Amino acid sequence: MENNVSHALYILQEPVQYMALSFMALMYIIKIRQMLKKPIPPEKAELKGDRVVGALESLTNVLKPWSMESTRNNMFFYAEFMIFHIAVALTIGATFFIPLVPSLMTPAVSKVFMLFMGLAFLIGLRRIHRRLTVPEMKIISSPDDYFAISLMTVFFAVGFVAMWMWISGSPDTGWMWIFFLLTTFFLLYVPFSKISHYILYPFGRVNFGRTFGGRGVIHRDVKKQTWNPK
Amino acid sequence: MSEQGEKIGANEERKWPTKTEFTPEMLEEMEKLLPGTLNRVVTASLSGCIHCGMCSDACHYSVSIPDDKTLVPAYKADRFRKWYKSRYDWIAQVFPSFVGAKKLDKELADEMYDKLWGGCTMCRRCTFNCPMGVDYGMMVRAARSIMQKVGRVPQHLQDTVDTHYNAGNNMAVPQDEFVETIEWIEEELQDEEGCKNFKIPVDKKGAQYFLTLNPREPKYYPLTIQATAKVLNAAGVDFTISSRYWDLTNYALFNGNDPDAKQFALWQAEDVQRLECEYLLAGECGHGFRALRWELPNWVGGVPFKITSVMELMAKLVLEGRIKTDKSVWDGHRATYHDSCNIARSGGVTEEPRIVIRAAIEDFVEMEHNRYDSYCCGGGGGALAMPEFTPRRLAAGKIKADEIKATGADICLQSCHNCTDQLKEIIEHYHVNAKVMNLAELLAPALVL
User: Fold this and answer.
1) Does the beta-carbon distance from B72 to A139 stay under 8 Å?
2) Dihedral through CA B127, CA B112, CA B380, CA B169, nearest 10?
3) Band of the pLDDT at A12, cuts 50, 70, 90?
4) Average pLDDT for residues B333-348, to the nearest whole number?
5) CA of A138 vs chain B CAs: smallest distance (Å)
6) DSSP B415
7) Does residue A229 surpass a pLDDT of 50?
């Protein structure tokens, strides 16, 4: 595919994106630095497992639905989660591939992207419905929660249509403009919203893994039996 | 025999001032205290929640009391998180209500008190079901520590800590009375068949294991001490009990006061070194085991001795063939095992109790949720020391009562004294036909001497 667009759209797709991306990166660096400055609780107990291995295992928790009861008992929900997040990665990827490597986005490849975007859109609608109707969700939801899922759902819908028109030979459409304007907005807004949870994910999982890995809960080294008087 | 009549506990009596209401001065003090509680785990937990709701089915409160949605873990944690966000969330600085941030006022503080003292046992079952790894236990303890410092702490819980501080054990059992009780238990043990030469040494220097007890044992459940001593003697274990700091409990783990937690741990550590024991041996007590095994070294900066538990030691004795058992003594009975949160999830001990159980009884049935998936019985986190929350505590125990009932067991085994009391109460409350016992009480009668 080729990306024959107007100069104005090119500005939006490239320099503006790079500036927004730089801003987002700066915000993330500040966030990560603030977190890294926080003291880690000490661990001086004799360990039953490996804290490093525990941390690594914990980091891959998202890929192991059997490891938590909450996902084990809700496999359909987990499948939706995976599709949604794969769609996030692909949609973000599209914002780079379209302007920079359009040849990669063959019709076949683009249709795969669109499939995930379409499914993610439907999943987004389900998630909005869930948050509005399930009492346990309503009681814990803030405007940021509703806004985040709504924004992502709209993003997928716009991306789907923009790509459809792009592979149909219309790369410079209003939909593509909206898609990249939304992307710019995301890059500026996400560091401040709950959507940035992927930056905090490693901290929470590493904390969990180190604590419970060391205690032999998620990674038990059976040789380290503390009752062995040797 | 040790020197007796010496002062056990702190030199000066203390009664921590408690308050029944939050005042503006207290709220102001809490604002100053907040930054000091924010280590990396607490901060990541406060900022990492994505409100996905995956924790709602993990909590015994929200599962047992489904009509009260304010008991969903994320809601409870948000009582603290709203305040945190008002201080540290970027968007909250310009648009607080957008992210659910709220400045600390009396209303929010009262909600924090109600939910984080009376609506959470810090069991961490939600943590184990959280995709973001939010550590509710640490987070709730941080909130409790702030409230405790300004005096807004459940009175009876604080009294328990004060008693421990003043007397060296949380039931103020005097040293001479304790030693007499141990001597009496020793006599009772020696009257048992095959136990004529069994001993419960007190203050024996150089013993391999320094056995610790929950104060409820000498006060109300001496037979558990007798059972434990019988097992240890039968296996030829070289152990002793201290006449001084024999109490393994540490209720400062529940009330969040780190200086007190450290003090109780320090007394214990010094006493182990006084008697020159190789192992500090935690008796069958849930939070006590965790406080000794996993928290004590951190509170005191490391220890020169090893720490283990009676559960793990009994399993070792079984596996090494140092005790022989006759399971027929429990014929006609069915047992199930309740995995206490501080022993299993927070302690990493799940298989050792089962080794002991399978050596003593034939008919053993697991509950539907066991090991790290076990539901909290509802008695943890100091809940039994907060009588103002008793109705909710009993209601929260329904899921556990249902699971015990479903096994058809007439013996519910566990290794925690808070669990003992809670299980007994919910068994009565929900009409479950089961007797609560600890592992030593199961194993001792099955010993072949």
Assistant:
1) yes
2) 130
3) confident
4) 97
5) 9
6) S
7) no
* Residue A221 maps to a domain: no
CA angle B215, B265, B301 (to 5 degrees): 165
Residue B319 pLDDT: 95
Tell which residue, A130, A134, A125, has the closest CA to residue A154.
A125
User: pLDDT per residue over B107-153, tens digit each?
Assistant: 999 999 999 999 999 999 999 999 999 999 999 999 999 999 999 99
Residue B413 β-bridge partners = B337, B437
> What tokens does B200 get?
């419960």
Distance CA B167, CA B86 (A): 41
Q: What is the CA radius of gyration of chain A?
A: 22
Which residues in chain B are closer than 8 Å to A140, comparing Cβ atoms? 51, 53, 72, 74-75, 78
**Token pair in block for residue B258:** 């780190």
Q: What angle do CA B55, B119, B67 make, to 5 degrees?
A: 70
Closest CA to B411 of B369, B372, B363, B373: B363
Minimum CA–CA partner of B281 in chain A: A227
Asked if the structure places residue A223 within a domain, the reply is no
What topology does CATH give the domain B24-152?
A: Fumarate Reductase Iron-sulfur Protein; Chain B, domain 2 (1.10.1060)
First to last CA, chain B: 28
Where in chain B are the domains? 24-152, 158-317, 324-446
CA of B350 to nearest chain A CA: how many angstroms apart?
9
Closest CA of chain A from B281, distance in Å: 9
| B residues 42-71 closer than 8 Å to A (CB) | 43-45, 47-48, 50-51, 53-58, 62, 69-70
For A207, the token pair is 């904390």
Query: Which two three-digit tokens encode residue A108?
Result: 């076949």
Asked if B163 has any chain A CB less than 8 Å from its own CB, the reply is no
Alpha carbons within 13 A on the beta-carbon side of B104: 26
A160-216: pLDDT as tens digits: 999 999 989 888 889 999 999 999 999 999 999 999 999 999 999 999 999 999 999
Residue A139 lies in a domain: yes
**Type of residue found at B400:** K
Confidence (pLDDT) at B305:
96
Token code pair at residue A130: 């869930």
CATH code for the structural domain at B324-446 = 3.40.50.10700
What CATH number does residue A72 fall under? 1.20.950.20
Confidence of residue B80 (pLDDT cuts 50, 70, 90): very high
CB B414 within 8 A of CB B436: yes
3-class SS of residue B245: coil
Structural domain of A196: 7-30+49-214
What is each CA distance from A79 to A70, A85, A195, B126, B132, in whole angstroms?
Answer: 13, 10, 19, 21, 17
* H/E stretch holding A169: none
Residue A110 lies in a domain: yes
B124 within 8 A of B342, measured Cβ to Cβ: no
Q: pTM for the full model?
A: 0.95
Interface confidence, given as ipTM, is 0.94
Give the total number of structural domains in chain A.
1
